[in-house]
Fold Diaminopimelate epimerase.
Amino acid sequence: MEFVKVHGSNNDFFILDEELPGQKISDQKLRQLAQKICDRQTGLHGGADGILDITAGHVGTQGRMRVINADGSEASMCGNGLRTVARYLAQKKAQDEFKIQTMYADLDVKAAGEFYPGVPAYDAEISPVSFKAEDLGMHLGQDKLIDQVVPEFDPELRFSAVAVPNPHLIAFVDHKTVIGNKLGELASYLNDGQNPYFPDGVNVSFVEVLAPGKIFVRTYERGVGYTNACGTAMSASSLMYVLLFGEQVQLEERITVLNPGGMVNTIVHQKESGTYYMSLIGNATEVAQVEVDLAAALAGDFSQAKWKATGEQAQYEAFVKEVTEG
Ligand SMILES: N[C@@H](CCC[C@H](N)C(=O)O)C(=O)O
């Protein structure tokens, strides 16, 4: 079975293209495979944050992307992953701008040049957006949560919740808090499968405003834990940044979003109908071509796996060095 190891902001995935000969896999085995291949200790080449499964898309799209988290759970969306799938399909179909089918929407993607020599970038649409509790799987006894203290979560932080369409809980915090333990402690609780507030879990992000138009986002992801970055979280955080800090940033303005794995740009848009959507623009790095035996992988045996590095990771690390050190 062939995979491409990819990442967006070092939020890394294995792309599985089921349209290639001999690559069809059952849903149950796909989820079992994710738990094995993504394991950071025993998985393939350091594991990953999930699997991006490609199948044929319906009319008007070049393919369908499913998102399987490292724990085997399925998510409705993956922003960093969508950019890498866009690059994969752009190369496969010789197209630069098209739509990809996702769980709730066909989303626009397009090539966006290079963020740095050898670091190709793609622009991915992030939508649909909803603030409704039912769309978030949120049980707080209210329909929306916008910039509000929730004593059950924390005595002083102010939280917002938005689905893009996967669920995100966001708080704007100071530097000490963004690097502290509070994020992991709260997110572990809200993803324990027992809490009454988010029974299906939620991606939790703390955001630090670095300068007008520049934010840092740290995320603890549902189904994964801490990741280097989360594209939908950075997009959702950008939306809340525009809505809550309108004196610093406006709709249609390009926002710089730093994360532990690198940097992306976002733009928040609003349709005439009033609904929002975001552009998530960032790297789509292909790290290696991979080949494993499925039965061995399902048994957690990667001793015979073939790993052919592309050489792109060195360029991505040079990009991160420039971005973080100037
Ligand atoms: N890291 C992804 C999000 C993957 C799904 C998320 N963990 C969830 O369960 O909603 C991204 O880049 O958006």
Q: What stands out?
A: Residues 61 and 95 are 11 Å apart (CA to CA).
